[in-house]
Structure formats: C-alpha cells, structure tokens
# Entry
Amino acid sequence: MLPALVDIGLNLAHDSFDRDRDHVVATALAAGVQHMVITGSTLASTRAAIELARAAPQRFRATAGIHPHHAHEFHDADVPALRELLLAPEVGAAGECGLDWFRNFSPHADQERVFRTQLELATEAGRPVFLHQRDAHDAFVAILREYRSHLPGGVAHCFTGNESELRDYLALDLSIGITGWICDERRGHHLRELVRLIPADRLMLETDAPYLLPRDLQPKPQSRRNEPRFLPHVLATVAACRGENAADLAAATTRNALSFFGF
Ligand SMILES: [Zn+2]
# Structure
C-alpha cells in the first residue's frame, strides 16, 4: 500500500497548471499524496488558492500571504484584505512570508515591513506561519524571535540552509519543510546529512511544484515542471538519508502536516 503523504508546498494556482490542473491533482492522489497545501504568494494567488481548496476542503488547505518577492506591491491599504483572507476556513497557515535577499526583487525595507505585518496578522488570526528565507538568515531570525512566542507554530519551508541555521530554527521551535532540493547532487548534498538532525515530529515534506523538479528522477520526465506526484521520491530520498523506513517516515510527516495545517 502507498503511504499517505501531505505536500505542504504546492503552487497549484500557478499558470503552468492551467491546462491540466485536475489531472495533476488526480495523479498526485494516485501516487498517495492525499492532502495538499496550496501556497498563496500574493493577494491574487491567495484568493485563487482558497478557491481551489474550497472545491475539496477534505484534501486541500491554502496559505494566505505575500512572498517577499512581492513585498513592494503590498501597501497598508491591502492589510484589511489579507486579514480577512487569513480567516477563511480553508486557510491553514499565514504565508508564504519571510525574507529573500538572494533575488532581492523587493527592497529589504519593504520585505521586513511586510514580514512583520504578516507575523502580526498571523498572531491575530491564530494561524501558524509558512516561512520563506534565502540569504537573509540573521535578519529573518531576529524578526521572528520577536513574534515567535505569540505564534501557534511555524514551518521553515524549503529548508536549504546550513547546520547553524537549522539549529536556530529548531531552537525557535519551528518545523522544517524539505523539498526535492535534497535530490540535487550538487546543491543539496549538505542536506543529506543535516536532515538527520531534524526530530521526526518537526519534519514535513513538500514539492514546491511547479518549481524544484528533483534532478535525479528516473526516467526523466519530459517537462521541467515539478508536480505533486513526485513527492514519494522526496520521501524515499529523505528516508534513505535518515536511515529510516519510508512508511514510518511517511506516517510521521503526514501526522505533523495534518495537525499543523488544521486538516
Ligand atoms: Zn518559498
């Protein structure tokens, strides 16, 4: 029997799924991915994620938030709209939110402002946070520390950092989301050891589809588009790195995700 999995990071509202969204979901279900959390990264994509989740609330949750890339487009006048979206029953977490100083699509001041706003709104709404961080660890942790005790939970989504960053996150009582980045023999090599340091009750799995197609899929898919049906491959890789049985790891990560996102 296939282990039941939860993909905690799926950009299902992305336009690369416009042609065949139902098929993408059907093939994920057939692969054992029974629950999916649809990422919101702007007000518009949050609305789309909620609408998709509403069609099958037993299978889906949405996140409601503004990705740091889009922070410059988010103004004080938009706060009430995000506050309201966070309260939708389909929303399992606030985000994705955080800091991205790798691409720097938004000025740092905007990113920090919008991150703080979302941590406040998450606190108000009693939602955990779905967190994104790249090349901004120190500033990110400093801001998060101020709010952490008020938040019901947080997950560092698509963790790709080093050991000291991982230890900072665990000390902040965060959960850790692992994507197919770990399958990348060049960029993901360090994760193969680090993933052993994550307690089983803090670990969750995600594809971040359509991004981050695992590089070692066999046979290689025709398209570069990642899909939630590849999550069992991430599970198998993480289980092998941890020296664990895949079914046991599936059970643990699924339990963590269902409880975190309020399924
Ligand atoms: Zn992200």
